């Protein structure tokens, strides 16, 4: 799902060429910034240890490697950040319905 289909890749490459040579690497810069911010919030101690998970690599969300695992990590971090912001939010489980989890996260974010 995360990888572009034939034709989409060509269009995305054309779009990158129009934006400049560094546009292809912008997602990697964003991921590194995200990781720095998560580290400032002590995500390793507070979020990952609770779930016995390894720290994220600096390109974890920039490259589609395991969409199911990446989706769960995203939802787990979103739930943790919502809780960190002072709102009670139930931590999603790995086998919860993805649509329900995203709906709950978006609903909570809209209430901010």
Describe this structure in words.
The protein is mostly helical. It folds into 2 domains: 6-64, no CATH class; 66-111, no CATH class. It contains 5 helices and no strands. The longest helix has 18 residues, at 67-84. The radius of gyration is 16 Å and the shape is globular. Mean pLDDT is 84; it is low at 6-10.
Keywords:
mainly alpha, 5 helices, 112 residues, 2 domains
Short description:
With 112 residues, this protein is an all-alpha fold. The protein has 2 domains: 6-64, no CATH class; 66-111, no CATH class.
Strand elements, count: 0
Which structural class do the helices and strands define?
mainly alpha
Distance N terminus to C terminus? 30 Å
What percent strand? Answer: under 5%
- Number of structural units classed as domains: 2
Shape: globular
Largest sheet: none
**Arithmetic mean pLDDT:** 84
Helix content: 55-70%
Residue stretches low in confidence (pLDDT < 50, at least 5 long) are 6-10
| Total number of helices | 5
Radius of gyration: 16 Å
Write the element-wise H/E pattern from the N-terminal end onward: HHHHH
């Amino acid at each position: 799902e995360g990888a572009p289909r034939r034709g989409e890749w060509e269009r995305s490459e054309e779009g990158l060429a129009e934006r400049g040579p560094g546009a292809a690497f912008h997602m990697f810069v964003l991921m590194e910034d995200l990781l720095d911010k998560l580290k400032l919030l002590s995500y390793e101690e507070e979020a990952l240890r609770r779930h016995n998970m390894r720290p994220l690599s600096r390109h974890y969300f920039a490259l589609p490697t395991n969409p199911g695992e990446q989706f769960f990590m995203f939802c787990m971090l979103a739930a943790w950040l919502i809780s960190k912001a002072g709102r009670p939010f139930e931590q999603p489980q790995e086998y919860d319905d993805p649509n329900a989890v995203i709906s709950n996260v978006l609903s909570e974010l809209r209430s901010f």
